[in-house]
DNA sequence: ATCGGAAAAT
DNA sequence: ATTTTCCGAT
């Protein structure tokens, strides 16, 4: 039946993407595992294994850990969703300018077609005082 | 801790 | 296409 697969996927969190999940926790001010830093778009993973556990629960992957989660984050580097803040432990930064450009068709449509579709559904985006 | 290749899974 | 899994190198 139509919707069955989607339902099952949703029930085990199959549809959600990692960076959506991160923005969700950050927007909610989840506090413990992950939080914004003082730099715009930058976040610090305060409890890597806890974050991995939460991510694993969402995805139905009981053996998720930070080693594997962080590999997924590194795949975001080339996709220009994230980059690492070098020298700051467990610290990454979102490419908000790119994200915003994709979401504001007013600007040239000629930039690297980087980002997905689901942005409007993210809990709190753009973050509190992001300068559009 | 962080990186990125390779292969498998979804 | 986006992870997940595994792992050797830095």
From TrEMBL:
BP terms from Gene Ontology: cell differentiation
SUPFAM superfamilies, per database record: Winged helix' DNA-binding domain
GO molecular function: DNA-binding transcription factor activity, RNA polymerase II-specific; sequence-specific DNA binding
Localisation per UniProt entry: Nucleus
Residues covered by the ETS domain: 16-95
Keywords: DNA-binding, Nucleus
InterPro entries from the UniProt entry: Ets_dom, ETS_fam, WH-like_DNA-bd_sf, WH_DNA-bd_sf
A single GO cellular-component term on record: nucleus
KW Zinc-finger (keyword) present: no
Tree of life domain: Eukaryota
Main localization category: nucleus
Keyword Nucleus part of the UniProt annotation: yes
Pfam families: Ets (PF00178)
Family: Belongs to the ETS family.
Protein's name in the database: ETS domain-containing protein
């Amino acid at each position: 039946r139509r919707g069955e697969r989607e339902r099952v996927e949703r029930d085990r969190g199959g549809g959600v993407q990692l960076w959506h999940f991160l923005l969700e926790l950050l927007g909610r001010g989840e506090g413990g595992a992950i939080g914004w830093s003082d730099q715009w778009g930058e976040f610090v993973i305060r409890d890597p294994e806890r974050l991995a556990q939460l991510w694993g629960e969402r995805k139905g992957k009981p053996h998720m850990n930070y080693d594997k989660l962080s590999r997924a984050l590194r795949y975001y580097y080339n996709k220009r969703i994230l980059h690492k803040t070098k020298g700051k432990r467990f610290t990454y930064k979102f490419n908000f300018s790119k994200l915003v450009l994709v979401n504001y068709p007013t600007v040239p449509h000629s930039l690297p077609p980087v980002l997905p579709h689901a942005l409007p559904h993210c809990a709190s985006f753009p973050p509190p005082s992001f300068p559009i």
